[in-house]
Design a protein that fits this description.
314 residues, Rossmann fold, seven-stranded mixed β-sheet, 8 helices
Length: 314
């Protein structure tokens, strides 16, 4: 059977990442017009023929979250109606992930609803990165390839050669991932016993482990308000840490989070380009590493029918 050709469609949510992925794959994105009707509705049109092709739509569902999701759904629908052979939603950041269970009465399971919408629109596969909760994979009854940005950050810190290192998980839930960093970087492991007191409020408990006189790396999936990571940085510094480096896959950076990070006792914040990082204010203490190669290689392997699991290794 003749092999289907590969097409990449770049949504508007992160065009610079999509361009880097296309560079990695040595191809140009399919031509898509994403405009707005005067009332604000999206008006989407593909100008490239995608009939019977293997299509990858790159669209993180980052702020403006509702717009990004709706655009993704329309692009998927467009591809389905244009007779694509297979449609993969490449979602480098999956928004609406916080509500992944009904933890009190009368609340939605937003992550499940968004997953249902993506599948209903016509996606046949999802490629994503550092989900807020890994069990969200199970909300899709289609294949999900879930990658981690950890190898990109670990390589960066290996090159820095930080001595007297302790990797501190900013909450109990990230301990497994922090252990991967500690093992790969030859450091010790500690955990901040964080307590969430509201949707955007956190209070630290104790640190499990020793950070006195240590250089600390705090790895997290995302920085939104910066509350969690600043709290963790303050706690470890109060307990005598020498320095704090932070890495987080998704630099959502809401509100005054950049100022908050700048004011915190943090030597460096490293994020990925899963969401657009252009236009940071001058003086922002934030370094961006690209995940284009990781995602590009995953796309290549999915298209070629090769195993992607080697890319899951951290
Ligand atoms: C918590 O469960 C997550 O891993 C992040 O630490 C958190 O969502 C980041 O949010 P914020 O920056 O608002 O504290």
């Amino acid at each position: 059977m003749k092999k289907k050709s590969l097409q990449v469609i770049a949504g508007t949510a992160n065009q610079s990442l999509a361009a880097k992925i296309c560079d990695y794959l040595y191809l140009s994105p399919a031509e898509a017009e994403v405009e707005r009707f005067p009332d604000g509705e999206w008006n989407v049109k593909l100008n490239s023929d995608i009939r019977d092709t293997d299509v990858f739509i790159i669209q993180p569902t980052c702020p403006p979250v509702n717009d990004s999701i709706m655009e993704l759904l329309l692009l998927i629908d467009c591809c389905r109606r244009a007779s694509a052979h297979q449609i993969t939603a490449v979602i480098p950041y999956f928004g609406y992930a916080r509500k992944d269970r009904k933890d009190e009465g009368r609340v939605p399971i937003s992550a499940k609803l968004v997953s249902n919408m993506i599948v209903s629109a016509g996606a046949q596969r999802v490629l994503t990165l550092d989900l807020h909760a890994t069990q969200i994979q199970g909300f899709f009854d289609i294949p999900v390839d879930h990658l981690y940005a950890a190898p990109v950050f670990i390589k960066y810190f290996q090159e820095k050669g930080i001595k007297d290192l302790t990797v501190v998980s900013p909450d109990v839930g990230r301990t497994k991932l922090a252990r991967v960093y500690a093992q790969n970087l030859g450091g010790e492991l500690a955990v901040v016993d964080k307590v969430r007191t509201g949707p955007d409020q956190v209070a630290a408990g104790t640190v499990i482990g020793d950070v006195k006189g240590r250089n600390v790396i705090l790895p997290d999936d995302m920085i939104s308000t910066g509350g969690s990571i600043v709290l963790a940085a303050n706690v470890v510094m109060e307990l005598g840490a020498k320095s704090v480096h932070v890495c987080a896959t998704h630099g959502i950076l809401c509100g005054d989070s950049i100022q908050r990070l700048n004011d915190a006792p943090i030597q460096e914040v490293v994020v990925s380009d899963s969401v657009p990082m252009e236009g940071l204010p001058a003086g922002a203490n934030i370094k961006t590493l690209t995940v284009a190669r990781l995602l590009g290689e995953a796309i290549r392997r999915i298209h070629e029918g090769e195993s992607v699991s080697a890319l899951f290794e951290t």
